[in-house]
Design brief:
0% strand; elongated; 5 helices; single chain; 89 residues; 69% helix
């Protein structure tokens, strides 16, 4: 019996994924977080050290959050968070 890493997956018909497949998955995940958890982006930018660039970044995050709140995804995310009573910090 071969116990090398991944042998069981190959025997089950699963193909090993390449590392290049991870990059699009990560990009999509970050994009979804920017859309649905824009309040988290605002909190993150507010905790950055003071600088001109970080102030501009914080202002841009606030504008983005306002747009996502107006469009609905941020409100949906908050409603789901309150429904399942999770406090994300």
């Amino acid at each position: 019996m071969d116990t090398s890493l991944g042998t069981h997956d190959l025997e089950a018909g699963m193909r090993p994924s390449r590392m290049t497949a991870v990059i699009p998955i990560m990009a999509i995940t970050v994009g979804l977080l920017f859309v649905f958890n824009s309040a988290g982006l605002v909190r993150w930018t507010q905790n950055l050290p003071p600088s001109t660039f970080n102030t501009a970044l914080s202002d841009a995050a606030n504008v983005w959050h306002d747009a996502m709140t107006a469009a609905g995804p941020a409100r949906l995310f908050e409603a789901v968070k309150q429904a399942i009573e999770i406090d994300l910090r």
